[in-house]
Amino acid sequence: MKKLISMILVSMFVVPAAFAQERYIADKLFTYIHSGPSNEYRIVGSINAGDKVKLLSTNRSSGFSQVLDARGRKGWVETKFVTTQESMAVRLPRLEKELTEVKSQLANARETADSEQEGLASSLDARNKQIAELEQNYSDINHQLTTSQTEIRELRAKLDTQKEDLLLKYFMYGGGVAGIGLLLGLILPHIIPRRRKSPNGWK
Question: pTM for the whole thing?
């Protein structure tokens, strides 16, 4: 019987723990407003964390400060809850918004940088292609120039040779003609007999 009761008690404590879900405490806290500079004074209201107030005076001995809230209520709160810095409840949404904007700007900057990089890469490829084509054209023109210079030298050599051959032929032809004329001038008088003059003067 005691064992049964013990098991029932254990199950009563274990089952709720098994079905419990994790949660977080919110930052939306509040502090009480007192009518005087001490917890002994009556509570006249409360102020939520992050609410803006005007500091009217501070009682250093009690550790309380007199404030005026946005609803026009005047009262005393503990000085440790009064700060010049906004609470996380107010700053966090603004920081998240700024973070979202920065992420968006960063994404746009990356997209722009990627686009510019692609444009530069494309332009660089086009320039490299143009340079390669110019180098190939220069190589072809240089080869053609070398070939033309070689052909010109060969043609000049052939022309000089033809000139020499032509001069030699002219010289040989002129010499042959002169030699034949000289030979005929020496031989013909001996071959052709001279006619005798007739007594009456007729040939």
Answer: 0.37
